[in-house]
Amino acid sequence: MHVLVTDAAGAVGRLVARQLIAAGHTVSGIARYRHPALDAGVDFVCASLRDPVLLELTAEADAVIHLAPVDTSAPGGAGLNGLAHVSNAASRAGARLLFVSQAAGSPELYQQAEALVAGCWAPNLVIRIAPPVGRHLDWMVCRTVATLLRSRVSAQPMRVLHLDDLVRFLVLALNTDRNGVVDLATPDAANLVTAWRLLQSADPRLRTHRIRRWADLLPQMDTAAAQEDWKFQYGWQATEAIVDTGRGLVGRRLDRGGATIGSGQLALPIEPVPRSFPRYGATVNSVGPTARGGIRRPDRSAVSGIQRNRSHRSTTRTADPDDIGRPDGRAACRRSGHGSNPGTWRRGCPGVGEQGHRGIRSSPYVGVSANIVAASQLPGWDEQAITRRTLGTINRPRACCRLGDPRWPAEHSGRSPRWS
């Protein structure tokens, strides 16, 4: 599915884009500025929502997730005019519109925004979220922390929403065709006293005087619909989400546009390093092994064992990489290595280890698969069936092993197998 994300360079936009790409969706984004931590797989355009490029991006999308703030005082805020442009573009393209609204915000502003989305011609879903929290301290979480620390301490229950649960619900909502309004909040609640103490214990010197407050920290929400109708399972309880917010506050300062790195303690990393892709036409050098037919093969033969074992130079040979690459071949090599001669075999496959060539002194890997040798030792293995499966209708050669079939002793005493 092709998804367009507005304000893709914001904190929530980057999280949503990363999760959508991981889920297999194609993501395009639009914002005024690009963020260095934005996933490189996003088809990003630097433009405002008034730019005509919005119509082109929406025409290619199956769904639009509007994350640009309606509040113009927030960073990247597009206001009601930006929401009107997005609703118009989605209606023209017939794309589904998902709008994230703030239940704790100003009722006059967000009720008007929800009515604007519900009245557009496009299929739409309004997601009303509780005061957001989490270690990703964007402008919304900073407002929640500032409002909580400046509120009157009481035992009233408070519902919050971790940003991780918001991102997970957005990915879930794309795979359904449900429309309407849904409220997102933790199924349980934490009282204001507990939340205040948890945040104060993270950093007692937090300054919140420059940050705006939510209009209603305790909004009325219907939390049963998300669990009963949507079957959504929250990953964070209320107290756990507030504790995780305190982890992100360590070593950071609150700001109107989001928390910044402060002095003192080391701040906890909250965002992974973005992936880097080579320039077009550049040569890509990989340190991993090469592959043939979907099988990972060693990039070079292990010749160190041959050089060290000079007495068996004429009979020792590296195992066939195709045999070693198959799962059953690796299991056979491990079984033979651990059972026949534990004194000279290393862990894992004998064809790749440092002294793996010394496991069977007269090596059976001369024109024969490892499965043929292991068939006589592993229970349930049939040498004839393996030969027919490997060679098909071709007549089996007179001797798969150049020196004849190996004759294994009844007990494994650490000696190498003798050849008849």
TrEMBL record:
It comes from Mycobacterium kansasii. InterPro entries: Epimerase_deHydtase, NAD(P)-bd_dom_sf. This is NAD dependent epimerase/dehydratase family protein. Residues 319-331 have a biased composition (Basic and acidic residues). Residues 3-70 form the NAD-dependent epimerase/dehydratase domain. Pfam families: Epimerase. Residues 284-356 are annotated as: Disordered. Gene3D superfamilies: NAD(P)-binding Rossmann-like Domain.
